[in-house]
Design goal:
Helix content is about 30%, strand content about 25%. The chain is built from 13 helices and 12 strands.
């Protein structure tokens, strides 16, 4: 089973058509490094020495093309933990895609995203941009030790031990009865990664106007049941610059702020990469749900897509992610191809209002990630830089 890399890649796609034409043409020449330094200083979200930004023109700035751009020396250097790569397409259909690469040992994804959103305000509004961290994003309450949290963790461990004890008997029974072994149980994970030629995960991105987050959660919960992840959800909660992880049995608990706080399993911190394979055990029968929150900013560019891609994130770890930027719900799902296709059929239902979605494959070409599985064929020349 692959070990996740410390780098998280986030992609945000924007339609630049709503931006005034005279301003749009000057965005590429704007000093993005200076804007980044100004935002870091004004908001105190991160030290300016930890974040670098650049701007470049590409042939195609859709999220799929920018995801597959090569990671050059600037973007793969380890000297600066956070890189913000602003990729512009200034043709007939002007677009911007920002590829964020953040080392989670230093800064979480939500905070890196917030820096980018403030930068877009500065690039468009200049000195009139509001120098504030107020983006309708509520910080989590301080983490406090409680016996209820300890009890929740002990219950999870007990279920895990029972599940692992039944592993050999359950696997033998499935083989004898010719049942399929799906990646929604320990034996399914073992089967998927039984050799090094395992498949990368599929990702499907959706966009919906208006407040459809509750519908999103309901559809994701339906998808979870459909693929047999019977133990509920794992979720991440932001405590900038780090995160904490919790477990929710139902979608109702996932939607409740109080329940999420009560069901956190560990104090906030950087991910324990060395221990990550033990953490995987909690995901055998659970879906990861990652909500980046609601953010409102004063820029004209229209958000059109969001992709969450933690390098080397196992394909068997089924996941749903979402963020709301200026009233646009950007969301997605990821996992093995069969599970993602099931989710796409549920979420792509006309009544759900999320559309058919856009399909991607997880990143496997970062020079430092050490990908050991199969590498899909590279995309056409439309992905190349100008």
């Amino acid at each position: 089973i692959p070990k996740v890399h410390s780098n998280l890649c986030l992609l945000f796609e924007f339609d630049l058509a709503p931006v005034a034409e005279e301003l749009r043409s000057s965005l590429l020449e704007a000093d993005h490094a200076a804007a980044c330094a100004w935002v870091c200083e004004a908001t105190k979200l991160a030290g300016a020495e930890k974040v670098q930004a650049r701007a470049r023109e590409v042939l195609a700035a859709d999220v799929a093309s920018v995801q597959q751009l090569p990671f050059d020396a600037w973007s793969s250097a380890e000297t600066v933990p956070v890189k913000l790569d602003f990729c512009y397409e200034l043709g007939a259909s002007p677009r911007l895609c920002v590829r964020i690469l953040t080392d989670l040992m230093h800064l979480d994804g939500v905070t890196a995203m917030r820096i980018v959103l403030h930068m877009l305000e500065v690039l468009e509004l200049g000195d009139a941009a509001p120098p504030t961290t107020n983006s309708n994003f509520a910080d989590s309450p301080a983490y406090e030790f409680s016996m209820k949290r300890v009890l929740n963790l002990l219950i999870l461990i007990c279920w895990l031990v029972l599940d692992l004890c039944a592993y050999p008997w359950r696997a033998m029974w499935k083989l004898l009865t010719c049942q399929s072994i799906e990646p929604n149980c320990p034996e399914g994970w073992t089967r998927h990664f039984h050799n090094k030629n395992h498949e990368p995960c599929d990702i499907v991105l959706f966009t919906a106007a208006g407040d459809r987050f509750k519908t999103w959660v309901e559809k994701v919960d339906q998808w979870r049941h459909e693929v047999g992840l019977s133990f509920g959800f794992m979720f991440l909660l932001n405590f900038s610059p780090h995160v904490s992880m919790g477990a929710a049995r139902t979608a109702e608990q996932l939607m409740s702020k109080q329940a999420r706080q009560e069901r956190l399993l560990a104090p906030p911190g950087a991910p324990e990469i060395g221990m990550i394979r033990l953490v995987y055990l909690f995901f055998h029968r659970r879906m990861l749900f990652n909500n980046y929150g609601r953010h409102c900013h004063q820029f004209s560019a229209k958000p059109t897509a969001f992709c969450w891609d933690w390098l080397n994130f196992p394909a068997t770890m089924t996941c749903a992610f979402a963020v709301n930027i200026n009233g646009e719900l950007l969301c997605g799902i990821r996992g093995v191809s069969k599970f993602v296709e099931t989710g796409r059929s549920i979420l792509g239902d006309v009544e759900a209002g999320f559309g058919p979605g856009r399909r991607l494959t997880q990143i496997v070409h970062h020079p430092r990630q050490g990908w050991t599985g199969r590498k899909p064929e590279t995309r056409a020349a439309a992905s190349l830089e100008v």
